[in-house]
Specification:
With about 140 residues, this protein is mainly alpha-helical. Helices cover about 75% and strands about 0% of the residues. It contains five helices and no strands.
Length: about 140
């Protein structure tokens, strides 16, 4: 197989992987924008570019939680005979922490309060829960 075809295949796979982040990042951007509209004293929604940077960086960190953290949380809950639906509590906490720390790290000049991050984290987990149950196999 020629080197050009290998490089093209790798680039297409990387593009498809990055494109898979587009929908969650746009959803999270919408949630951040909504927080700015509903709570103007807690979140600034005038800087669209900063909100998009915040949404993309938070989406990447939330992806790592979904891949690494959620299976661990599920196994710990099953080990101690707790219902698996309790995984939503650490998911809300991690989502809130991720969004707030991303706001402080990547966009420090953006006004974004912790309570706005809690709102966005809860909204993110709630929408994810309904989508997960909508497409669940029965």
């Amino acid at each position: 197989m020629p080197t050009f075809v290998k490089i093209l295949t790798i680039l297409l796979a990387a593009f498809a992987f990055l494109l898979s982040f587009a929908v969650p990042a746009l959803l999270l951007f919408g949630f951040l924008w909504t927080a700015g509209i509903l709570f103007p004293n807690l979140a600034d929604n005038t800087e669209v570019q900063d909100l998009m940077i915040l949404a993309i960086s938070s989406t990447i960190f939330l992806f790592f939680y979904e891949v690494i953290g959620e299976p661990v949380v599920k196994s710990v809950l099953q080990r101690f005979d707790f219902p698996v639906r309790l995984k939503l509590i650490p998911e809300i906490l991690f989502g809130t922490m991720t969004i707030y720390s991303s706001a402080r790290l990547w966009t420090p000049h953006l006004h974004f309060a912790l309570s706005a991050a809690l709102f966005v984290g809860t909204l993110d987990v709630t929408v994810g829960y309904f989508l997960e149950n909508l497409y669940a196999k029965k």
